[in-house]
Model the fold of this input.
Amino acid sequence: MKCDFILVMQRFLRIIVYVSLFIVCSATACAENTIDLFGALPVKGVIYDLQNTPIATTDVYLNYVEIFVKKEKLARVGIMSNRGTWELFIVRNDAKKTLIGYADKGILYDSDHKNIIGYYTVTPVFIYVYDEKRKKVGHAKCIAWQPVCGAAVASYLLHLI
Done:
């Protein structure tokens, strides 16, 4: 009986040690900004024109989305806090990291936040993009972080970047 108790306690302690090591290693990776869900990021997406031809790609990370055309990074879309609210912003990939637009509730705006550039709709798998007259201009397959990915795809298809 006493031997069984000792075996159970040894197993229990071994599990605690393994879990503790996992937590410490995960926390260290997070602190160093190197965690990427063990190789799962970025999640890749494809942007299509009206003829269903792939024209660009997206890389979806935990806190932003990057847009690529032929392996050249054009822009980045992410979230920032502005006046107590959170906004989606679009930044061109130039030396100055120029702010070129905003997105809010499926609407894409210019950098002045006054003119509507177009619209986008997100579903669990696809993003559909429409111009200011609500004519479809393309779509994308993006299975992660759809609101931000939608703003990225819309900014590309509507020639904001």
DSSP finds two helices and ten strands in the chain.
